[in-house]
Amino acid sequence: MAFSASGSYSMVSSLVVFLLVASLLVPVPVPALPNLTDPSPQNQTLVNSNSSSSSSQSLLHPRERIQKLKAYLKQINKPPVKTIQSSDGDVIDCIATHLQPAFDHPQLKGQRPMDPPERPKGSQPIDTVTDIYQTWADNGDSCPEGTIPIRRTTQKDILRASSFQRFGKKANRFVRRDATGSSHEHAVVFVNGEQYYGANANINVWSPAVTNQFEFSLSQVWVISGSFGNDLNTIEAGWQVSPELYGDNYPRFFTYWTTDAYQATGCYNLLCSGFVQTNSKIAIGAAISPGSAYDGNQYDIGVTVWKDPKHGNWWLEYGSGLLVGYWPAFLFSHLRSHADMVQFGGEIVNSRSSGHHTSTQMGSGRFADEGFKKASYFRNLQVVDWDNSLLPPSNLNILADNPNCYNIRQGKNNVWGTYFYYGGPGRNVRCP
Question: Quick check: pTM over 0.90?
Fold first, then answer.
């Protein structure tokens, strides 16, 4: 539930840094169809910058490209029972639960969502009036029972990508094992070395400035397993600002998963067959409102991810008791058993498009040292153990890739439990 109020650096192994560099959060598996950019010179340049195969596909007649684009949109946008126009420009479609994208998966066809699991021991009491704090629901409109709200994908969403095949995917590039070669920067805490079965945190929500379309700023929980090679498994949830993915600078609730280190499997939100949504009140990918204000009211969202001890599926909870849905166990290899690492914190992309460090902000855009009402925070950090119990994390590691640009400070008290402040402005006199 959203919370309102008035009122070091440690070295890690090369494997950990590889994970931080690799967690780009943008691959979406889509059919290998031709590029569907519009016929303008600008978009033709984007198409022609791809492989020779993509270049040949760009020779398709513009009318044919548009027809293929429309066919793809029809495939991913299911027929709605009801449509809601959000004040932020989103269109939310209420889709029959059994028609959601997850049930296009061969192993889920013809099935219905699983019954709710046992919540972890130590969970907060279920709040029957959990506030959603999503813009599309501000006017009191909602999806009927038996449906789920899905943000409609538009032609503009796809055309913002460099090509149709790159829509929602990470760029193909060599991933270094050291942070210095990466355009992604982090300020995170993490635990590893044991077996983990989930994680919980309350994440302070802000609207950080993102300086160009191809950068993002996010704050999230990672649940991780694998050898940190091509078999890396992750489950991720939190909020993000991503102009390329959504076309604006609103903070949005999001999910993500991969089972092959962000290569072919997995996706954001419901953009592929995978996550099974069970809730009619939460739209994954929709804007969160209100956000926190500097020296003003603070808002956070509760995020819990845990493994159902009975069926092995990984469930997602928003707030106190609002089940969003689950990732089926069969999607994963290593996470079918347990997680090896849990990570909390922020990440940004630094494209250096102007020849210097980006001014894209992390968190509130303020350094951790400024504290409450100024710097962004995570509070009530917990992990789930083998007995399905929520416990404070032990032996917490801290990592800031570039502390002159974005830093992190961890603490503990009786009110917030284990917590940390994090973030920063990006470019400044100490971060040129």
Answer: no
- Check if 215 is active-site: no
3-state secondary structure of 81: coil
Domain count along the chain = 1
pLDDT tens digits, 50-62: 333 344 345 567 8
- Indicate the Cα dihedral angle 421, 254, 425, 397, nearest 10°: 40
CA angle in degrees (0–180, nearest 5) for 59-63-64: 60
Burial class (CB in 10 A: 0-12, 13-18, 19+), 432: exposed
| Domain span including residue 218 | 14-30+83-151+168-423
Average pLDDT, the chain: 85
8 A C-beta contact, residue 328 and residue 245 = no
Q: Is the dihedral of CA 201, 207, 213, 217 positive or negative?
A: negative
Q: Is the dihedral of CA 90, 93, 97, 102 positive or negative?
A: negative
Active site residue 236: yes
Whether residue 47 contacts residue 163, with contact meaning beta carbons closer than 8 Å, is answered with yes
**Annotated active-site residue in 215, 244, 317, 347:** 347
- Amino acid sitting at position 197: Y
Confirm whether 309 is domain-assigned. yes
Which residues are within 8 A (CB) of 129 and not within 5 positions of it... i.e. 6 or more apart? none
From the candidates 185, 236, 244, 317, give the one annotated as an active-site residue: 236
The continuous run of DSSP H or E covering 324 comes out as strand 322-327
